[in-house]
UniProtKB/TrEMBL annotation:
Residues 414-491 form the UBX domain. Pfam families: FAF1, UBA_4, UBX. Residues 105-116 have a biased composition (Basic and acidic residues). It comes from Amphimedon queenslandica (Sponge). Residues 130-147 have a biased composition (Acidic residues). Residues 338-402 form a coiled coil. One of its GO terms (biological process) is ERAD pathway. SMART domains: UAS, UBX. This is UBX domain-containing protein. Residues 49-62, 94-104 have a biased composition (Polar residues). Residues 47-67, 91-147 are annotated as: Disordered.
Amino acid sequence: MSSRDEILANFQAFTGMDDLGTCIGILESHNWDLLSAVNSIVPQDFSDESQGQEISAPVQETGNRHEEAELVDGLRNPSDEAVVLENHLRQHNHVTPQQEPQPSTEKRRSLEHSYEEGGGGGEGGSSCSEEYDDARETLSDEEVEGDGEAITDDMFLADEEPIAKEPLIPEDCEDPFECSLYLSQRFESRYGSPHPMFFVGSLSDAVKEACGASVSERRPMFIYLHHDKSILSNIFCSQLLCCESIVSFLSIHYLVWAWDLTNEKLKRKLLDMVRECFGTLVSNNVDDIKPDHLPAILIVYKSKGQMEVRNIIQGQSDPDLLLSSLIVAHDQHEQVKETDRKEEIERLEREEMKALQEAAFRESLRADQEKERLKMEDEKLKQEKEREEILEKERKEELMRQMENLIPPEPDDTHTKVSTLRLRFPDGSIHQRRFLPSHTVANLLNFVGSKGYQSEEYKLLTSFPKKDVTSYHPTLTLEEVNLYPQETLFIEER
């Protein structure tokens, strides 16, 4: 007698019923007789439309290696209840309902608990560390006797979903950001929590985020490629991607990005993004992955300045092996980071030294330019000053000529009344000049100015008493200001 959890799984597979409570109630009412319970649900009437229809026995997905082995053994042995039941249904022209997606780990645990409360023992229950590969390989190599049909990979890869699932990414979604947002939301809706935190954005955005601003901020990328028509997808998602140890490790050490390849249009979009980010070779490798080898994982990280796909994991169903692969890839990435970090430190030191040298050169150049500017400024000021001095000299010379033309001629010896003035100039020279007593102060000042000593800059002083002749009214005569018959005058700078 098969264990009750296996009977329940087979009952759900043949009836297509998802409600665990209802299924358990029906089986208990038939004393856990699988054939009797199914006959009570499946109608006995023959449908003309089912004539000639090929009937295939669905394989119930489980995460337990022990259950998978029992299932394979049961399929090999025609006396197994499930096969007997299938043959019975074939004889009555009933089409066996297609199986529903495997319940999550939490549902399986709830089921085991309900068995115990109902008095059922059963060895079953799911664990996130059982493999599905052995069962699939066994089923692909051997045939089930009794109905003469061989069990092939078609049992693991259905041509179309019997019960329409909402795709992780809508077929008409164009924007990569929206696609990744749909995938994140629908993944949680389908498989529950915990699950990895998927990066929302295009593949190129995810690559930029994983690379980081510096070497210390880099993270390896975990790229998950999903396919709804691969039976391993449900197992992988529910028992590996939702395994707490894997979720925890990914959240700490990896950037997780995912895509759904079920739709051909979306697959083409992914290949274009992969080609853009990682090159044609990687894109071709992804394109070559068959649906029955999915899901696939790409481990990608930056090494020596470029992103490299370091590992492609296909069809993995053992969480321990997956976690081990992730740890190895992370350790390798840390080694690459350490090498790149040292190179970055050396590069930064070189750049800092270069920057200091360039700064010193710029400072020296600035100082030279400032020195040259000041020199040119001084030269310009000097030239300007010289030009002004020349102009001033020319102005004074012109003024001296004008004053000289205004000086009355010196009286000759025929004049008996003459004023003799002795003039001492600032340069120490002494000039003597004779004037008529009727000559004015202006005539005297013009004479002094013609020698280059204008009254605006110089004073003309008498010896005793000391008086400033330049302060007299210019129309006064020399006799009126007591500069007759003779006087000694001193010229001083104001």
